[in-house]
Design a protein that fits this description.
Elements lengths: L1 E8 L3 H14 L6 E8 L3 H9 L5 E2 L3 H5 L4 E4 L6 H8 L8 E4 L5 H10 L11 E8 L24 E6 L5 H13 L3 E4 L2 H27 L4 H4 L5 H7 L1 H4 L2 H10 L1 H24 L2 H24 L19 H10 L3
Parallel strand pairs: 1-2, 1-4, 2-3, 4-5, 5-6, 7-8
Antiparallel strand pairs: 6-7
């Protein structure tokens, strides 16, 4: 049985749920590996809360100290903190450590890791970053909370881990991340990080921008004094990210994806123009038909999302050489040295 030192940096919903999932796995009678989990967060109260909830075994107030003994690090910080965190831990990660980066965009993190992670005498990195994106259990899709109290051990049950490494990332590091997902019963899909970032722009950055636009449009109108007290479920669900996110982090996410976001925004503006023309036409049947077509397509998407059986899945590179958890990665350097 292997003992794995695992560190979670960022104790929100995703990081907390990953910790609970690892704890649930470790309690299985047939568990082949045991995870000792250290947690770090910039908010000390969250560290204490994570210990009480059983998310982590111990908390650490120092970011660099939290990763020094880690075999694996799960990074899930507000986006504007990611580059600084990678810079700080770059010299503290032990040789062979793997960072699972759950940041919304993968390419910037890959570039930051290449800049800040310590290299050996041959110029090769001594630790590795692998981008991951976790799609949650469909039963929890409507829970938009992003705080530790929303963490659940089953958040990823029936979900999917998208693994998006750099082309230069060693296969052993990528497979290690896939092995962890397999242990937790999470399906995996391998994606190019550039392709991933373009898709995420459509599915997360664009909705965020539309929430910003909706609120700015209404709150800056002359009738806002009359509108504001009528806010109900539809308005809340259409703007909720403005009440729970970090302004700097959200702004950085949109800025980093701005090229792809502008293309998606142009497509959305074209669609809004079409819908505006339908409304102006005064054709009630055409408006109903627009809803009917979209509602049919939405229903199909929702059913498939709940089953998480996407056929066909896009073709992507998949690691072909299997390895046992930890053994292959930490044996790689010795083999290169001829030991």
């Amino acid at each position: 049985m292997a003992q794995v030192n695992f560190t979670i940096v960022g104790l929100g919903k995703i990081g907390g749920s990953f910790g609970l999932a690892l704890k649930a796995y470790s309690k299985l009678p047939n568990a082949e590996h045991q995870f000792t989990i250290t947690g770090y967060d910039g908010t000390a109260a969250l560290i204490d809360q994570a210990v009480k909830l059983g998310v982590i075994d111990r908390g650490e107030r120092s970011l660099t100290a939290s990763v020094e003994k880690a075999d694996l690090v799960f990074l899930d910080l507000p986006y504007h903190d990611v580059e600084n965190a990678l810079q700080l831990i770059g010299d503290s990660l032990k040789p062979g450590a793997v960072v699972m980066d759950a940041s919304p965009l993968k390419m910037p993190s890959i570039q930051w890791a290449q800049t800040h992670f310590r290299a050996n005498a041959e110029g090769e990195p001594e630790a590795y970053l692998v981008g991951v994106h976790l799609l949650v259990n469909a039963d929890h899709l409507a829970d938009h909370r992003d705080t530790l109290d929303a963490a659940r051990a089953d958040l990823f049950n029936g979900g999917l881990m998208i693994i998006a490494p750099a082309a230069s990332c060693p296969q052993e590091a990528v497979q290690l991340v896939a092995d962890v997902a397999t242990l937790l019963g999470i399906k995996q899909h391998f994606a190019d990080p550039v392709e991933h970032d373009g898709i995420l722009t459509a599915m997360e950055s664009l909705p965020l921008l539309l929430q910003l636009a909706l609120f700015r449009s209404l709150s800056s109108s002359k009738s806002w004094e009359d509108l504001r007290w009528m806010g109900n479920t539809a308005f809340y669900l259409g703007t909720y990210q403005l009440g729970q996110g970090d302004a700097e982090a959200l702004g950085k996410q949109l800025y980093q994806s701005r090229d792809s976001l502008l293309r998606r925004l142009d497509d959305t503006l074209d669609t809004l123009t079409e819908l505006r023309d339908v409304l102006r036409s005064g054709d009630e049947l055409a408006i109903g038909e627009a809803f009917d077509r979209s509602m049919t397509a939405y229903s199909k998407w929702e059913r498939t999302r709940r089953s998480n059986e996407w056929l066909p899945m896009p073709e992507t590179p998949v690691p072909t050489e299997g390895m046992r958890l930890l053994g292959g990665l930490f044996g790689r350097k010795d083999k290169k040295k001829g030991n």
